[in-house]
Amino acid sequence: MSSAALLRHFAARELHCINLGTLLDRTNHATSKTILDSALWHATEELPTRLAHRIDDLDSLPKQLRTGNVSVDTVRKWYEKSFNDLLNFSERHKHKKSDQLQTADWEDLGRCLKTIDKRHQPVATTLAEGFHRHLSGNPELSHDDTLQSFLEVFHLSRIGMRTTSSQHMTLLQNLANGGERPGLAGIIEKKMSVRDVLEKASADAKQVCVDYYGIYQAPTVKIEVPESLVTTYIPGYLWHISFELLKNSLRAIVETYEEDKYRPVTVTVSTDSTDDEFVIKLSDLGGGIPAEGESEVWRYMYTTAESPYSPDEADDYMVSASERAIMAGFGYGLPISRLYSRFCGGDLRLQNKQGEGVDCYVHIPNKVYD
Fold first, then answer.
1. What is each CA distance from 61 to 148, 149, 287, 299, 330, in whole angstroms?
2. Residue 135: partners with Cβ closer than 8 Å, 6 or more residues away
């Protein structure tokens, strides 16, 4: 069967829902055999299917959104290369079950998944910069519902693919090393300290703010979250959500006040918390979202900041963007942060107070369900 025919074959397959609850349920009931079975199934069935669906989505973009769009072509090539890498792995180990694979075979799988993970690291930034550049002369196309729907599905799928691959790589590594580290279920932390993650996100966001604006000191971030607050979560995802929200708040403060009059950003546990979830509230007094932008904040590519790159920069510079901290300008921070939150069983909401500031609410489930 040709490569194109195989792509069509896998793209026609049904996709199954993946979220934090699904991964936790699989891991909590895992044995050495089921970990190996699941990793082999992921590499030969699940991941190729998800890649094929996304390639099909890229090919189905309207002509005006794809023609001449270098970023779409680049990402498609990355996805097709990863798809073929997995097919080649399957071909090398055809008809073998997990208990028939040797140590060298599992090492082969680990290298394959790590290569794909590294290849896909710049995908989000590459698409963001590419669409910014491509649509710079036709900004009305950024409101195209087809494009918005494509980006929502594409990035949610990307989160699912990278999460499951990371989970399988971690579980395989744990097996090789003799067992799971206490308190972890793969990449999931069973009793994650919410305060620790918030403090790390705060420090990182403040450093980016200082570097970006060339100021001596970033505005204060007051984290009033009890040290005892723990939950089952993927730490990197709460970090990402908090980092993006804090960057927005710090930017609003710096651009609203003189340096000696900065107002603090506060992070608390909201009174909206219930038995089923708790809510982290991040509040700033940076003037709020402009009236004309209030209905736009969840749209991809909506931003009140200047693009961090000029339209004529080289494509290889665009690809390296994900390796550098960006203060603002792509218009992806809020919608992708909401995807991370929803993937983990929660949500992300904003309450805008024009002329005053913004309250952000990160909903985190007390219990994770499939």
1. 11, 11, 38, 18, 20
2. 141, 142, 301
What confidence tens digit (pLDDT) does each residue in 35-54 have?
999 999 999 999 999 999 99
Full DSSP string of 275-330: SSEEEEEEEE-S----GGGTTTTTSTT--SSPPSS-TTS-HHHHHGGGGS---S-S
Assigned token pair, 254 = 């710096």
pLDDT averaged over the chain? 89
Could you say which DSSP state residue 43 is in?
I
Amino acid type, 183: G
> What residues pair up with 351 in beta bridges, in sequence order?
359
| Among the ranges given (105-109, 145-149, 161-165, 342-346), the one the predictor scored with the smallest mean pLDDT | 145-149
Distance between start and end Cα atoms, the chain:
36
Specify the pTM. Answer: 0.91
Residue pair 109/43 in contact (Cβ under 8 Å)? The answer is yes
The most distant pair of C-alpha atoms in the chain lies apart, rounded to whole Å, by 68
- Evaluate whether 288 touches 354 at the Cβ level (below 8 Å): yes
pLDDT one-digit tens code per residue, 264-313? 999 999 988 888 899 999 999 999 998 888 888 999 988 776 655 444 44
For the record, the structure tokens of 52 come out as: 């094929």
Which tokens go with 136? 């710079």
The DSSP 8-state label assigned to residue 267 in this structure reads E
Cβ–Cβ < 8 Å for 315, 70:
yes
One-letter amino acid for residue 366 of the chain: N
What are 148's two structure tokens? Answer: 């918005």
**What tokens does 362 get?**
């990160």
| Amino acid letter, residue 347 | D
230, 193 in Cβ contact below 8 A?
yes
Distance from chain centroid for Cα 96: 33
Strands of the chain, DSSP E = 184-185, 188-193, 221-224, 230-233, 265-269, 277-284, 347-353, 357-365
Domains of the chain: 3-185 (1.20.140.20), 189-365 (3.30.565.10)
Q: What is the DSSP string of 104-143?
A: HHHHHHHHHHHHHHHHHTTHHHHHHHHHHHHTTT-GGGGG
